[in-house]
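Structure first, sequence second, as always.
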């Protein structure tokens, strides 16, 4: 191909009203056209959809008919185009529309993010070395593999890497804290467990805790569920935490104190601890006030040991305190004014839902009637005692042996299964029918497996009084129920269906709320009708300046990952407040979410060589070994089981956002929050040199393409012949 055959200069280009030309296509024709125009003094915008110029000629082995080396021919053009001062190379760019008339066009360009800044990238390849995501290499026509962080080919111009990313994976989008699940799953698959934990801790200071008790919305959103079963994301988080925590603990360097204003946090639960971590890392002195003798909030006193071992909580709390956060246990805050008088510039109220709800039934105050939160707290703090074959409560009252739990949520199941471990015969009654119980279905199944009898569809009339002590609950069968707009329960019952469920101990587990009695009416902090703190939901700011609230104190009972997300947001707002900035956060970029159809998920499976099959079962303690102790039921994955489960991930977004490239890039060129943008340029002429497309492989099935390994396209054949190709020629 001669150098002058790529472009024809029409008279309009001799002296266009706008001294610029748009060239669409970065192949040999587009480059030659750009160079000819640039040498004549025109400003050239060279548009290329891929991450580097070169086009199909860069893929060829030899040129026809001279049989010259294609790369030897094209390399000088690549270098000259990339260096020419009159040529602006726009890679990963598409032309959206062209408006105007000959000699004066307005062209709208859409720049797709490459996530690596080519002006900073030095082409070292460290990002590709650490990237855990392996995909078919399109430059080699799928005959080999490359990493999500890549350079299109070794001689590519610009000499910069890019990241293949479709958006954010649905698992991350579904997580309140934005956990990069695909990232740590990809690293687990490669056996890089320390790196995997580092990714988790970017967003979540409690991986060991959430790996056990998270409600895992990520799994509900997982595209793998379109095919068989979602990836067991929660179990993989727990695995990598246990795996790393089993190794000697590395000391944590205290955070540098960069700012003077002190922050007080009321409550050492997941929300308060998350905010404390973030604020300490930002450089603030932070003090946490906790009324209980232990840190962890409801994690420590509201979740049974068989689900969440104490050692895991203490380890993850210690990681936060070692940053330099001060923790004052057994310290109840009764006066917000005093905190400000003591020199604190801001206060975060992050108390958990420690107050159980007692239904207003006759007999509800009888001895033998307990509240869920008190029961779980006393069990967790080992306040129940065994004496002469009997179990006694914290205040010395007999417990059981027959226990009736009222409520159908996850906490009610925790209460029931804890009572079983204390040796009781346990019944559980709730207003909802069996298929509408608010607890997770697998929790109810586990309770039944341990001997808990379920009595769904019951409404409660009174606690039976037997000589001044509770002896059961009179119930009536429910035919229908609904909650009104104010959250009040309306129940329809079956006439004449009254009956008694006998018990020696009755435990209410129909809800919890945050204890806000320490906030008097004159404190300037508004309280809603639902007994939560009134806040601006965008800023977490309460009605009193300098006071913020988050977690259960504003939302009511929530899951731990929601408390973590709330703590992050509160810390951001407190930082803006203390820096004198506007409290309203700046809008965040909208990143596309990769939601696949079933056929797309199947195609992704085929392309990634992922095998069909359900999730790897989680090993569990046998039911027969669960009585009389609080040994953890789920035993966790082994290395082999975890890597097998991680290999089921479809890598929906391609790039897993594991941030390994970001840690490795010494030039700080990686920006995972890069977004698509549009730009308008004014040109006098447009030259189209978009190249060609190879024959559609789907139409070639009749010839065996895609079915037989020895049937290839001409371009695949070129890559096989090329010395730089997947087979080395």
């Amino acid at each position: 191909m001669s150098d002058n055959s790529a472009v024809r200069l029409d008279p309009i280009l001799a002296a266009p009203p706008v001294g610029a030309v748009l060239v669409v296509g970065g192949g040999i024709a587009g480059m030659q056209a750009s160079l000819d125009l640039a040498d004549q003094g025109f400003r050239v915008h060279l548009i290329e959809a891929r991450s580097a110029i070169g086009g199909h000629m860069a893929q060829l082995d030899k040129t026809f008919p001279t049989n010259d080396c294609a790369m030897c021919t094209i390399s000088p053009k690549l270098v000259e185009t990339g260096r020419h001062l009159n040529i602006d190379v726009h890679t990963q760019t598409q032309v959206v529309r062209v408006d105007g008339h000959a000699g004066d066009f307005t062209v709208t360009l859409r720049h797709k993010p490459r996530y690596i800044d080519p002006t900073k990238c030095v082409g070292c390849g460290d990002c590709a070395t650490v990237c855990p995501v392996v995909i078919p290499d399109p430059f080699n026509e799928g005959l080999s593999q490359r990493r999500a962080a890549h350079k299109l080919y070794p001689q590519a111009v610009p000499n910069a890497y890019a990241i293949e990313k479709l958006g954010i994976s649905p698992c991350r989008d579904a997580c309140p804290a934005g956990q990069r699940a695909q990232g740590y799953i990809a690293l687990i698959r490669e056996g890089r467990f320390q790196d995997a934990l580092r990714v988790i801790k970017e967003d979540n200071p409690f991986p060991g805790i959430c790996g056990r008790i998270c409600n895992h919305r990520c799994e509900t959103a997982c595209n793998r569920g379109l095919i068989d079963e979602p990836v067991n994301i929660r179990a993989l988080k727990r695995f990598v935490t246990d795996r790393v925590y089993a190794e000697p603990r590395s000391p944590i360097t205290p955070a540098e104190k960069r700012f003077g204003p002190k922050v007080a946090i009321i409550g050492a639960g997941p929300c308060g601890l998350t905010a404390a971590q973030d604020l300490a890392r930002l450089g603030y002195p932070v003090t946490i006030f906790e009324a209980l003798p232990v840190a962890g909030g409801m994690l420590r006193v509201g979740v049974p040991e068989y689900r969440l071992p104490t050692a895991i909580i203490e380890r993850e709390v210690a990681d936060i305190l070692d940053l330099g956060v001060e923790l004052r246990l057994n310290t109840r805050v009764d006066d917000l004014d005093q905190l400000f008088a003591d020199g604190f510039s801001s206060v975060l109220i992050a108390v958990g839902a420690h107050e159980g709800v007692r239904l207003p039934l006759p007999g509800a105050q009888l001895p033998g009637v307990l509240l869920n939160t008190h029961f779980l707290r006393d069990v967790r703090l080992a306040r129940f005692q065994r004496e002469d074959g009997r179990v006694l409560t914290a205040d010395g009252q007999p417990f059981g042996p027959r226990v009736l739990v009222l409520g159908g949520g996850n906490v009610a199941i925790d209460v029931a299964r804890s009572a079983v471990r204390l040796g009781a015969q346990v019944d559980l009654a709730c207003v909802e029918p069996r298929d509408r119980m608010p607890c997770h279905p697998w929790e109810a199944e586990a309770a039944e497996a341990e001997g808990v009898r379920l009595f769904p569809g019951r409404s409660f009339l009174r606690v039976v009084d037997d000589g001044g002590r509770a002896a059961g609950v009179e119930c009536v069968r429910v035919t229908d129920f609904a909650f009104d707009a104010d959250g009040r329960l309306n129940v329809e019952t079956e006439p004449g269906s009254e009956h008694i469920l006998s018990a020696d101990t009755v435990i209410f587990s129909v809800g919890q709320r945050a204890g806000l009695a320490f906030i008097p009416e004159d404190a300037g902090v508004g309280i809603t009708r639902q007994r939560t703190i009134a806040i601006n939901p965008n800023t977490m700011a309460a009605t009193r300046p300098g006071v913020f609230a988050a977690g259960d104190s504003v939302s009511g009972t929530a899951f731990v990952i929601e408390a973590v997300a709330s703590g992050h947001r509160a810390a951001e707002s407190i930082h803006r407040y203390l820096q004198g900035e506007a409290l309203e956060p700046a809008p965040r970029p909208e990143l596309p979410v990769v939601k696949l159809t079933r056929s797309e998920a199947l195609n992704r499976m085929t392309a990634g060589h992922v095998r069909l099959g359900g999730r790897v079962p989680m090993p569990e303690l046998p039911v027969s070994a669960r009585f009389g102790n609080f040994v953890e039921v789920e035993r966790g994955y082994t290395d082999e089981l975890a890597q097998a489960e991680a290999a089921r991930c479809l890598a929906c977004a391609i790039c897993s956002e594991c941030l390994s490239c970001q840690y490795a890039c010494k030039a700080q060129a990686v920006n995972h929050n890069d977004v698509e943008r549009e730009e308008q340029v004014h040109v006098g002429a447009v030259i189209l040199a978009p190249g060609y497309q190879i024959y559609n492989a789907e139409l070639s099935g009749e010839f065996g393409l895609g079915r037989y390994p020895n049937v290839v396209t001409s371009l695949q054949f070129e890559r096989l012949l090329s010395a730089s190709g997947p087979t080395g020629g």
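Margin note: The two ends are 24 Å apart (CA to CA).
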